[in-house]
Specification:
Blueprint: H1 2-15, H2 20-38, H3 42-51, H4 55-68, H5 74-97
Helix pairs in contact: 1-2, 2-4, 2-5, 4-5
Amino acid sequence: MAWACFSLSYLFIIKQRAKLKLKVFSLLAVICFAFNSLLWNEKIFVFVTDINPFLPIVSGVLGIIFGWYGMKGDVRISILLANTLTFILYLLLFIFFGPWAP
């Protein structure tokens, strides 16, 4: 699902008429969302949180920042919404279960 989301977003962003800097920020935001959506698999989530339990939260924050400076319009709204929802999900998991929970 993550790679399908990334490839569709990539094609949609590249086809838009916008500055290169805005396209790069939008693509970085989509990459952050794709990384966080990969973590919905339990084995990958445990592997990543063993490396650093804050990594999904940091990726969500970076996705929000990159999305904010990315392309304007519906693309920005959808990228910000997706990254905000995944950030809130991982923040709630971290608050209620802590970094020590599986």
